[in-house]
Design a protein that fits this description.
The protein is of the alpha+beta class. Helices cover 40% and strands 21% of the residues. The chain has 7 helices and 8 strands; from the N terminus they run E-H-H-H-E-E-E-E-E-H-H-H-E-H-E. Strands 1-5-4 form a 3-stranded antiparallel β-sheet, with helices on one face. Helix 1 crosses helix 3 and helix 5 packs antiparallel against helix 6. The radius of gyration is 17 Å and the shape is globular.
């Protein structure tokens, strides 16, 4: 993806496509700490999603940096955002069966995807979590023909991408004017990814700081 002043590369993986590879991925790509964390999963589907997500991150970063996948040292900030000492910026999101990884060499990046679904209590969630500007954007989308759930998820993905780019967590976002953070929807990309999967559809966004 390119913009006027920033560029990001995006990779994706479908968890279900790699269910048979999970054991091999965990051996070949995950760190000792990640495998120890994996041992705590009791639900197979959650374990598969964790392994495929971590493997995607490690394979992509390994190729970019020329470092063995298992040797990559991925740490987390106090707010939980994964970072690399090498200075390259990345962020990952998953929803449903889809995992998306964004990588940027120039600026911190945040990405969020949301599987389209019925969202319960949309109005209550909007009142609780959206800013005045975000609520206006929500109402504009509804006026343009989007349903309540779809409009909310589109606004929410932009919010989440911005928060993740900042690396502050939703509780720390109140001190920032999120609308000033560069962000854009990923509709065309996600539509191209899901075009052959009639049972799954997604919205999402990417942001940079």
């Amino acid at each position: 993806m390119t913009g006027a002043t920033v560029a990001a590369d995006i990779w994706f993986a479908w968890v279900g496509d790699h269910a048979r590879d999970v054991d091999r991925f965990s051996r070949d790509y995950l760190s000792a700490e990640e495998n120890a964390h994996l041992a705590g999963y009791r639900i197979r589907e959650a374990a598969e999603r964790y392994v495929v997500t971590r493997a995607l991150v490690r394979v992509v970063l390994s190729d970019r940096l020329g470092i063995d996948a298992r040797a990559l040292r991925v740490s987390r900030t106090d707010a939980g955002k994964p970072v690399l000492a090498e200075g390259i910026h990345f962020n990952v999101s998953h929803s449903g069966d889809l995992i998306v990884l964004a990588l940027c060499e120039e600026r911190a990046v945040g990405v969020d995807i949301e599987r389209r679904r019925d969202v319960a209590r949309v109005q209550a969630l909007s009142d609780r979590w959206l800013s005045d500007e975000e609520r206006r954007a929500f109402h504009v989308l509804r006026s343009g023909g989007y349903g309540d759930s779809d409009a909310f998820l589109r606004v929410w993905s932009l919010k989440e991408a911005r928060i993740k780019a900042l690396g502050v967590g939703i509780s720390g976002a109140s001190g920032h004017r999120l609308s000033d953070i560069e962000a854009m929807p990923l509709d065309k990309l996600l539509d191209s990814l899901t075009g052959q999967r009639n049972d799954q559809s997604y919205v999402g966004a990417i942001a940079f700081v």
